[in-house]
Structures are given as C-alpha cells and as structure tokens.
Design a protein that fits this description.
single chain; alpha+beta; Rossmann fold; 31 strands; elongated
Length: about 750
C-alpha cells in the first residue's frame, strides 16, 4: 500500500503539464510583444518557438456566474426577456447580446496574486455559456461511495470550466492571427459541443457565410451526437427560443441553410443565406474546397487516412493571396485507425500552419513543438472521497485529476479482458499525447512487459551505454568513428556526422540522414577472429532516391540492425549489437552503410535484405561483396524445398494479398516476429523470464513496436521481420542439432547488463 502511494505521488510530481504550471514564466517573451494579435495578453512564446498558455500557479477563476447571467435568466423564466418583441428595449438587448456573441464579454472573474481583475471571454465562449444547450452532469444526482461515484445527466447550459476557457481562447487567437488548429484530445473534453457551438454562432451571426464539417465518413457528423447533429440542434434553438431568428431555407443534414423565401417562391434578397455543409473526405480529399468557407472543421483525424492529401488542397483554399480568410480546426481521439498520420501532423504543426505549442505535455519534450493537447486530468469532473477535481467556479485541481486518472487506470487494468483493451483505454483518456498515439487495439506486439521495458529504456541511464558515429573504410579496414571523435577532428554536424534520430516517427527538425548507434563490439576468438555466423544483419531499404529537402517524416527510412546469434562463443545468447536508421540522399549510401556493417561484424552469408525495393543486390555485386548477402529462405515458404541452390540473393517479401492488402509473407513474418520477440532466452536473478525484446536496447525500436498498427509505416518493424525469418530459419536448418544446443540458464543473464559477459 505504501509503495503504491509513493508511486502515485511520483506520478503526480513528474507530470510535465503540472511542472510547467509550477515553473517561473518570467523567462518567456509575451506573444503580443513579438507582433502577434493578443489583445487579452494570454499567450507566451517558449524557447522552442511554440506558444504557451500563461497559466501561473495560484491563478483562480472567481465569480464565474457573472459570465452566464442570460442562461440563468432563461432557466429561471423559460425565456431570455420579458420585453415586448421588437420594442426598443428588446432591440437594444438583442444588439447587446449579438455584440457579446461576436466580440466577447468582460467581468471581474479572474484572480492572480490575490487580486481580482477583469476576465475577457471570447464571443464564442459567451455564446456557448448562454445560448447552447448540452447534455451534462446533473450535480444534484451525484452519489459517491468508496467504491465509486454515479450521477445522471440533464439538458442544460454549460458551466464555466477552465480548460474550456483556454480552448476558446486558443480558437480566438487562431482567428486573430490567421492560424489553423490541430487538437489531440481525450474523451469527456466537450470538444464536439464546443466546435458545434462555434459553427452555429458563426452561421447565425453573419449573413452569407459558410461553415463546413468534414469527416472520413459524413455519417459520423450527422448521426445522433455527431458534430453536425449538435450544430443543427443549436441552430434550431436560436430559431425557437431566442431573438436571433434567421429562418430556415434548407433543412438537409448535408446542406442546412438559414433564410427565407418570398411568397412567390423566390429567395428573398434579405434572406440570411448562411449555410452549414457536411461532407465526407473518403476518396474525396477536395470535399471542402470551392465554397469559400470561414470555418472548416475536421472531426476524428485518426480515421482519415488521406488527411495529408485533404490538407494539401484545403489549407490553400483558406487563403486569398497572402491573406487568411478562413480557419481550419481539426481534432481527434485515439482510435484503431491510422494514428500515424495524425501523429505526424501533431508533432509537425507548422507544415499546414497549425498553431504550434511548446510541448509541455510529453516528458522531456520542451525543446519541441506540437499541436494543442487537452489532457484527461484537466477540466475533469470527479472526486476521490471529499476531494474534488473541479470547484464551483470551474477551476481544475490537476493533482486530484491525476489521482482520479491513476485510480481509474488501475481499475481498468484489473478488469480488462485483454491488455489491448487497457492500452486503448489509456489512449482515449490520455494525460500525454504520447499515450494517445501509442494506443491501438490492432497492435499485436504490445504487452505490459513491453511497456515496462520501454519505460526502463527511456528512464534508466544504466541502459544508455551506446556510442553514436559511423563506419568508415581506412586502409582497406572498416573502423567505427564516434561522432565525438569526428567533431574533435573538425567535422561539422549534418555534413561530416549526424545525430541519432530520436523521433518515432522522425521529428521535422531532425536531419533525415541519421547515424549508426553501436552497443557492442564484435566478439573476436583467438586464431579465428570474428566467427562466421556469429552475427546477422536485417535490412529494410527504401525504394527511391530523394534529396534531403524533399524528405518528410511520412517517408520511409532505411533500417539496419546487427544481431548477435546464439553460439558456443557467447554462451548461446542473442542480442542487438548495432543499428542504423535514416535516409541519405542516395540509395547507394544506405547500402554502403550496410556493407561496412557486414564487414565490421563479418556477416558472411547472413546479411538479410529485402529485395522488393531498392538496388542493394546490384550494389553489392558492384562492390564484389555478394558473399555477405543471405539468400532467399525459400524453404520457409515451401516445405518441399530441400536446398537453397536455386535461391536468389536477398529476401523477397512479395506474395499474394492478405489482410488489408498486406502480402501473405508479411503476415507470416509479423506472426514470426511476435513469436521471436516473446521467446524466452533466459531467467533473471529473480527467476523471471527474459524475452528476446529485452535484449533490444534501442529505445526507438521498442517504441515503434509499442506504436505499431497494420495501417501505418513502421520501418523498424518491417526490418525486424527479416530478423524473425533468420530466427526461424535457424530452427528449420538446425532441427537435428537442437537437441545438442546448450540451454540458456539463469547464469547466462543477470539484471545488471554491466555484469554480463559480453559487455
């Protein structure tokens, strides 16, 4: 119990967003001082160049009931006013409210350093609080016990919530500065309500304007509870309950237009003529162009596999010359779809002019930018005992929110039918973007043990014993030069040497070339040197040349790994010893890296390279180095094949189509890879199993396994399929010898890697 309490406190103390709130903000420049239009002085700019919300420890919203007095009047009286319709007081009230819905509202509702000051809320937030009916928690029905809390929902006006205040403030900042917005959100964030109210407000306030809603399939917009469904209900509320009646000209879900016709059937010249269009982007990436929209909203980005194509045509359509004439808002929650597309854009927001934020949500990411993230613990309605995650004025207690999240995660983990279900839950109720992008129910590799290993590699410096550099040929010998040595010799970064690529996928600021990372030197046996067969290489090359400036984080990268095989010379152990990940300008450069690695580790006949793309075999032929290449393991695919005399160099991963267009060989390879990764190769000092994946010290590889899904581009996983084939081939070829193979014992592996014999 005490151990769990310490774990919870550590979880809270190390939460990055909490740490940001607590830190001194005086070091940052104010957005308004850098030329941005920020009339309410709400935003800072960090060292990363990304924006920061100006949230200070001790900040508190007060008297927030002053912000929704019109809603309170309606609830008390069933109407917004007792003034006679079209009377002078009635007109004045209507004009006042239209002004507030457009320009915002101020009231003494914010306290900083113990002093109450005026708080400005945007026009869209004012509209949201006073003219939008949503389904929300009925606080009068809350029943709380030690075993959990229950309550009912009701139709009512929204309450002020600090996290939603910032969402509306960010939307307003985007509109004032010609930026778009990409949001990674969790469930229970109220985003559908917020975005629906935003569309309804724009259409009802401004004549002859268009808002467009887009999703992979329009049915997700128009179904009950969908974005368009909410918006249309809001528009009906204006017509039936407010003094902002515009008339309804067209009532279709795909085209809902405000206005009216003359008695003769013609549309009146005084008709409002603002419209809401809903469209599907599936096989139609240009669905939002041609309508001169002031706002385009894109729901559930993770389900849009063609999101890049969609943005390539839609983003330019939001401009007239150099002027931004409309804003695009896109958001999503973790799903079983292609999270990789969403992730690439989230961590590279500037590509499509999304508002860039300094990443205060992921661990150790303050030097990077990302989209906007709304964590589960912020703006959370809930309680633990008599401790509430939010007070009556809408202030979040993030510490309590984190405690609730921790408790719910533990309960979900204990009750989930599968670990995949638990991981999917974490993604949908994430406290960090990295959590949301690492979750999919389609991941065949993930497990609690793999996630623990990923955390270990990331946080335990004991495992950071690698050196980065490159292999070079000097006097007909291959040597490894470290980046540090090259730098000391006068070498220049990104010219003579390159950094290891940390991002998964690669971040936009990282050079695509990449470098070699070496964990272990080759074994050398007296009188033999490096034994043939001691090491194997798995290599997944890219298919076409592409210069640096044309390479984005969505393009494939070369992945090469050197593996130590279990032999008599190492106590029959296996491990990853060396790796390269990157994309030089020319295919030949990557092949040359592989060639030098093969020579350095003496990988004669054990260099496995996929030949369905690239030109590796041709290059190795040119270098008179075919002896290093492994031949196609045809006996794995055809049991009738007794020898490899007819096999060609390289591994052919083509074949018939399988699930989702994946070749049957690849599907079999994925199965073999999972089998290999979870093969037991020993015991630790506690008698617990050690699996193959725990002999992989490359954090990026483990992280990619954690993120894997069937629809994305995962180069390291594709490359490791080659290794899985080598692993399986060893068993096939040596079936008769297996009985004589020495078994791994407890003494072969120990917890502390520094005490292992190979180090």
């Amino acid at each position: 119990m005490e151990e769990e309490k310490l774990h919870i406190e550590k979880y809270i103390d190390e939460y990055p967003f909490r740490q940001y709130i607590l830190e001194d903000k005086s070091q940052y420049k104010r957005a308004k001082d850098l030329g941005y239009n920020d009339p309410n002085d709400l935003f800072l700019v960090g060292e990363s160049g990304g924006f920061l919300m100006d949230i200070e420890v001790g900040d508190k919203f007060v008297n927030t009931h002053l912000l929704h007095e019109m809603a309170d009047f309606y609830n008390a009286n069933g109407k917004y006013t007792f003034y006679k319709e079209d009377s002078i007081p009635h007109r004045q009230l209507r004009k006042r409210e239209e002004y507030r819905r457009s320009h915002g509202y101020e009231a003494p509702c914010f306290m900083r350093n113990g002093k109450v000051r005026q708080l400005h809320i945007s026009g869209d937030m004012y509209n949201y609080l006073n003219y939008i009916i949503i389904e929300q928690l009925d606080e009068k029905t809350i029943i709380h016990t030690d075993r959990g809390s229950v309550a009912k929902k009701k139709q009512d006006f929204p309450k002020f919530i600090d996290a939603q205040f910032w969402t509306f403030a960010i939307i307003e900042f985007c509109e004032l500065n010609g930026l778009h917005l990409l949001i990674d959100k969790t469930r229970r964030g109220g985003f559908s309500y917020i975005m629906a109210s935003h569309s309804a407000n724009k259409i009802n306030l401004q004549p002859n304007k268009v808002c467009i809603h887009v999703a992979a399939d329009s049915k997700y917009l128009t179904k009950r509870g969908g974005l368009t469904d909410f918006t249309i209900k809001n528009l009906y509320f204006y017509e039936n309950n407010t003094f902002f009646k515009r008339g309804i000209l067209i009532r279709s879900d795909e085209n809902f237009t405000l206005g009216f016709k003359l008695p003769n059937g013609d549309i009146s010249p005084k008709s409002w003529n603002s419209a809401l269009f809903s469209a599907s982007a599936n096989n139609n990436p240009d669905c939002a162009i041609g309508k001169d929209a002031i706002s385009v909203k894109t729901e559930e980005v993770s389900t849009m596999e063609n999101f890049d194509d969609y943005m390539n045509v839609t983003e330019p359509a939001m401009r007239t010359g150099s002027y931004v004439t409309g804003n695009l808002f896109a958001w999503g929650t973790a799903t079983s779809g292609n999270m990789q597309v969403f992730e690439r854009n989230f961590y590279n927001p500037k590509k499509f002019h999304f508002m860039p934020f300094e990443n205060v949500w992921d661990k150790d990411s303050r030097n990077e930018v990302c989209g906007y993230f709304k964590p589960y613990c912020w703006g959370l309605q809930g309680q633990i005992g008599d401790m509430y995650a939010m007070d009556k004025d809408g202030n979040s207690n993030i510490d309590i929110g984190l405690r609730i999240a921790y408790k719910e995660r533990k309960e979900k983990k204990d009750s989930s039918k599968s670990f995949a279900d638990y991981i999917n839950y974490l993604g949908q109720y994430a406290n960090m973007p990295s959590e949301s992008f690492s979750s999919t129910t389609e991941n065949i590799f993930t497990s609690e043990k793999l996630l623990l290993w990923e955390e270990t590699l990331k946080n335990d410096n004991t495992y950071h014993f690698y050196t980065d550099g490159k292999f070079v040929e000097e006097e007909n010998k291959v040597i490894f030069k470290t980046n540090e040595r090259i730098r000391k010799e006068g070498g220049k970064l990104n010219v003579d040497y390159y950094d290891w690529i940390e991002g998964v996928p690669r971040k936009s600021h990282e050079h695509p070339h990449g470098c070699v990372r070496k964990w272990f030197n080759p074994i050398k046996v007296t009188g033999i040197g490096i034994p043939v067969g001691q090491y194997s290489i798995s290599y997944d090359p890219v298919g076409v040349d592409k210069e640096k400036d044309a390479i984005t984080n969505k393009h494939s990268h070369n992945s090469i790994k050197v593996w130590e095989n279990p032999t008599q010379y190492n106590g029959f152990k296996t491990k990853l010893v060396c790796a390269y990940y990157g994309r030089p300008d020319k295919l030949e450069e990557a092949d040359w890296i592989c060639y030098l690695m093969a020579r350095y580790y003496n990988c004669i006949g054990t260099t496995g390279v996929e030949v369905n793309r690239g030109e590796t075999v041709r290059n190795f032929t040119k270098w008179k180095a075919l002896k290093y290449l492994m031949k196609d393991p045809v006996e794995l695919w055809d049991n009738s094949v007794k020898a490899k005399a007819s096999a060609t160099y390289g591994i052919n991963m083509g074949g018939g189509a399988g699930q989702a267009g994946v070749g049957t060989k690849v599907l079999e390879g994925l199965r073999l890879l999972k089998e290999m990764l979870y093969s037991e190769v020993g015991k630790n000092a506690l008698g617990q199993p050690i699996y193959v994946f725990q002999t992989i010290y490359d954090y990026q590889t483990i992280l990619e396994l954690k993120k894997w899904n069937s629809k994305g581009n995962f180069d390291r996983v594709s490359e490791m399929i080659i290794r899985a084939l080598q692993w399986r081939l060893t068993d096939v070829q040596a079936a008769k010898e297996l009985s004589h193979r020495k078994k791994a014992t407890v003494n072969n592996y120990k917890d502390d890697i520094l005490t292992r014999g190979w180090y």
